[in-house]
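Figure 3 (text version): structure tokens given as input.
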């Protein structure tokens, strides 16, 4: 099994690298501007946004996955509409911190987004506890299984994004 060091993929045209290093990500961002959080799964992509001052993340929507080209069209429309300046993508490491097939899949998704939008900084943010934390909150709120299924992905994206923006502000 592979241990993830600070991930820095090869730069493309603009010289940006997808990274797990929040300082590198911060240096590629303008001072302020809305960020989007993504919880990329095999069937859905949860989306969240934060305010331009990086104070609070809010869940936005859940996209049903199809082919990357269709997924990307929906995502790029969301990015343009929301005036997004950077992406925080949930990085699904195994509980012991190693790379899993899902980790590789999400990294591939991030690389494809970077190829299509090379000027948009991308941070891979550890998401190991996001779905569990959100699910626990929904259970505590007495949400039905159906309602939890409708909300969990976009709320997980919000949880991931909030962790990253808290890190950016300190």
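Below: residues designed for each position.
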């Amino acid at each position: 099994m592979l241990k993830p060091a600070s991930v820095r993929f090869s730069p493309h045209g603009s010289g940006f690298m997808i990274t797990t290093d929040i300082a590198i990500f911060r240096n590629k961002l303008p001072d302020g501007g809305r960020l989007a959080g993504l919880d990329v799964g095999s069937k859905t992509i949860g989306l969240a946004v934060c305010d331009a001052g990086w104070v609070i993340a809010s869940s936005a929507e859940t996209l049903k996955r199809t082919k990357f080209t269709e997924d990307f069209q929906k995502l790029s429309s969301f990015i343009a509409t929301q005036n997004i300046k950077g992406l925080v993508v949930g990085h699904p490491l195994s509980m012991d911190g190693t790379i899993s097939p899902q980790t590789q899949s999400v990294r591939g998704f991030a690389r494809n987004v970077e190829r299509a939008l090379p000027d948009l900084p991308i941070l891979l943010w550890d998401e190991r506890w996001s779905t569990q934390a959100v699910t626990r909150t929904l259970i505590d709120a007495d949400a039905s299984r159906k309602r939890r299924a409708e909300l969990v992905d976009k709320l997980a994206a919000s949880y991931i994004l909030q962790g990253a923006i808290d890190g950016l502000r300190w």
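The helical segments are 22-28, 68-82, 101-116, 130-140, 145-169.
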